[in-house]
Amino acid sequence: MDALAASNVYELIINLLQNATMSTASARYTTDTAINLIDPKEDNSLFLLSNISATKSLELNNKVDLILQDLGVKEQSNRLWNNLDNLGNVVLAAQKNISLMRDVQQLLEDHHDRISTVFTAVDDAREGLDLIEETIIEFNEDVEGIKQRVNSIQHFTSSSIKESIKNLTENAKEVDLLDKDFSQLEEKTEEHSKQIKLLRKDLGVLKEKIDEAREKAAKIRIGVRSDVGSGCIREFLSPM
Prior knowledge:
It comes from Meloidogyne javanica. InterPro entries: Laminin_dom_II. By secondary structure, this protein is mainly α. It folds into three domains: 3-78; 85-152; 157-237. Helix content is 83%, strand content 5%. It is built from five helices and two strands, in the order H-H-H-H-H-E-E. A two-stranded antiparallel ribbon has the order 1-2. A hairpin with a 4-residue loop joins strand 1 and strand 2 (232-237). Helix 4 runs antiparallel to helix 5.
């Protein structure tokens, strides 16, 4: 190795040693500084600074609470939180009410459909009532016509009917007497038997006619009008 090369090597080694010495010194300083920051006995230690900061923070927090208490802010804040809780309950109740209202709305729609059906039925019933009213009016008109016809035959009274029945009864009695007379004549004479038989035959036919008339008269209803104006009529069968 020549002298120049050796000189360069020595110079490099010296530089490396100097750099190592400087790095070691820097590391030691950093280490000492870190130890001082951690050591609670040192005035500038992180522990002491942290304690001081925590103490000041606690003091500030207490002062803030006192100030807020003096201003009533804390009470208002608590009231606000309570109001928020109440508001939340109101919102929940409103949501339930909305759901209930939807159910009620659906129910009302169903009832509306039913009511529409009822209205339709009522309209149909009204039409039926109108028809019934028209029928009643026609019936009243018919009744009035009947009343007029009844009034037109007032002259045909019950007394005339009774008189006719009485006459028929008397005629029947007379026929019976004649029959007896003819029977007596038949016994007295036989000469007139043929004539008597014919007469008796005629009398039999006459009796049948009278009986038929009496049967028809017995079925006649005799009406007695209590009050002509009121239309009150009492009826009874003939006593025949």
